[in-house]
Design brief:
Blueprint: E1 2-8, H1 11-28, E2 32-38, H2 49-54, E3 62-63, H3 71-88, E4 93-97, H4 101-112, E5 117-120, H5 132-143, E6 146-149, H6 152-160, E7 177-180, H7 184-193, H8 201-204, E8 212-216, H9 220-223, H10 226-243, E9 246-250, H11 253-262, H12 265-273, E10 277-280, H13 285-294, E11 297-300, H14 303-311, E12 316-318, H15 326-330, E13 334-336, H16 341-352, H17 367-379
Parallel strand pairs: 1-2, 1-4, 2-3, 4-5, 5-6, 6-7, 8-9, 8-11, 9-10, 11-12, 12-13
Helix pairs in contact: 1-7, 1-17, 3-4, 4-5, 7-14, 10-16
The structure holds uridine-diphosphate-N-acetylglucosamine and uridine-5'-diphosphate.
Uridine-diphosphate-N-acetylglucosamine binds next to helix 1, helix 5 and helix 11.
Length: about 375
């Protein structure tokens, strides 16, 4: 029996972990035992527990309860807690997702104890080192034994960085491996889309299918910069008034905490009292899928939400200066508008009237099975 440790901490990692946990439960339970460590990076029920319950992920075996903090402080506490666990209990490998501080901490703790790291969502790059996520993902890729890239673009990024030319060997004598596995979030979106209609999220917010915009904003360079945050919210208000269209905004706690501080009082007041803009608490994953499936268009700075918009064939206005998911741009299903008022308004106008195609670019919906087979091959 192979024993792996899955490290999660932030909302998108918990959701991603559902795909592997489900595959292990259904088809690999005789070969793989999974233990889950939650770093506690996200801790509000709506950012964490709701996903374990709704997506039937086994509750974490360990919770470090690290909470929020400065990057170094938060990451250091996580490294220390993960190290303590892997020194006290044997694991054959550690599964890490994405690019958060929890990912970086898991990588540093595991690599120093010579536990093989399996990095899911390897090879993604924004080429913007001002993003903490870019630093985390580059570091994690370097420390990993198997890199599971979700797209061919991610494979090409790794090739350009020399990953295919340099033969890296770990203490167990094994060489680094790199695969295009497809995207576990495509697995999840396909699987859970069937159940999302059971939620009441449209009715409870008086939303009509194909007649509202779904927006999310949480990226630090948007929330923490008053000029950018003001510009994004001014544009949302303008679009909703001009086109008489509802905008639902499930607010990340980072954003709800910073809006009163970083928006001008007049704009904040108008947003709160707008009859079109619906500010709501973070929603569950099934509710989010239901919102994505029925939206006219998506506006977001989230990595995961950009991709889910594509899965559900919705155009996406991307509130960032660049994206890791360049396939979306290449198929003209998304537009980069940054936090620029005019570009956001023009982007909405252009994308809401355009015919867009959404070819399958993110695998076959069975990425989790591919990943688990490769992990078994590597460890057996
Ligand atoms: C983190 C990730 C980011 C990811 C996002 C997913 C890093 C560096 N960033 O950003 O890549 O896109 O998660 O959502 O790892 N907060 C709460 N309750 C919670 C969690 C957070 O109130 O349960 C608030 C706190 O004020 C905290 C702030 O949100 O300081 C930011 O949380 P943090 O985990 O540091 O970063 P995110 O912005 O969530
Ligand atoms: N999500 C959710 N509820 C919300 C907002 C997002 O379930 O209120 C899901 C979303 O569907 C996606 C993931 O959370 O699967 C994306 O997380 P987030 O935007 O926080 O982080 P990112 O993907 O940018 O790292």
């Amino acid at each position: 029996m192979i024993k792996i440790l899955t490290v999660v901490g932030a909302r998108p990692q918990i959701i991603k972990a559902a795909a592997l946990s489900r595959a292990i439960r259904d088809d690999f339970s005789d070969r793989i035992e999974e233990k889950i460590l939650h770093t506690g990076q996200h801790y509000d029920a709506a950012m964490s527990k709701v996903f374990f319950d709704e997506l039937k992920i086994p509750m974490p075996d360990h919770n470090l309860g690290v909470g929020s903090g400065k990057h170094g402080e938060q990451t250091a506490k996580m490294i220390s807690g993960i190290e303590d666990l892997i020194l006290s209990e044997h694991f054959d490998g550690v599964v890490l997702y994405g690019d958060t501080n929890s990912t970086l901490a898991g990588a540093v703790a595991a690599v120093k104890q010579h536990i093989p790291i399996f990095h899911i969502e390897a090879g993604l790059r924004s080429f913007n080192m001002a993003m903490p996520e870019e630093v985390n993902r580059i570091a994690c890729d370097q420390m990993s034994s198997i890199l599971f890239a979700p797209t061919q673009t991610a494979i090409e990024n790794l090739r350009k960085e020399g990953f295919m030319d340099i033969d890296v060997r770990f203490k167990n004598g094994k060489h680094r491996q790199i695969f295009n596995s497809g995207d576990v979030m495509y697995d999840n979106s396909l699987y859970f889309a069937e159940f999302s209609g059971r939620t009441k999220i449209l009715e409870s917010n008086s939303l009509q299918a194909n007649n509202y915009i779904l927006a999310t904003i949480h990226r630090d360079n948007n929330t923490d910069n008053p000029y950018r945050l003001e510009s994004i919210f001014r544009a949302l208000l303008h679009i909703s008034d001009e086109y008489k269209i509802d905008i639902i905004l499930p607010l990340h706690p980072r954003t709800s905490k910073l809006m009163p501080k970083n928006l001008s009082p007049e704009l904040y007041d108008k947003i709160k009292h707008s009859s079109y803009i619906k500010l709501v608490e973070p929603v569950s994953f099934l509710e989010m899928i239901e919102l994505e499936k029925n939206a006219k268009l998506v506006m977001t700075d989230s990595g995961g939400v950009q991709k889910e918009a594509f899965f559900f064939e919705k155009p996406c206005v991307i509130l960032r200066p660049e994206t890791e998911w360049v396939e979306i741009l290449e198929h003209a299903a998304g537009l980069i508008v940054d936090a620029d008022f005019d570009r956001i308004v023009d982007g909405y106008r252009d994308l809401s009237t355009k015919q867009v195609t959404f070819p399958p670019l993110f695998g076959d919906g069975k990425a989790a099975y591919f990943i688990l087979e490769k992990i078994i091959d590597y460890l057996e």
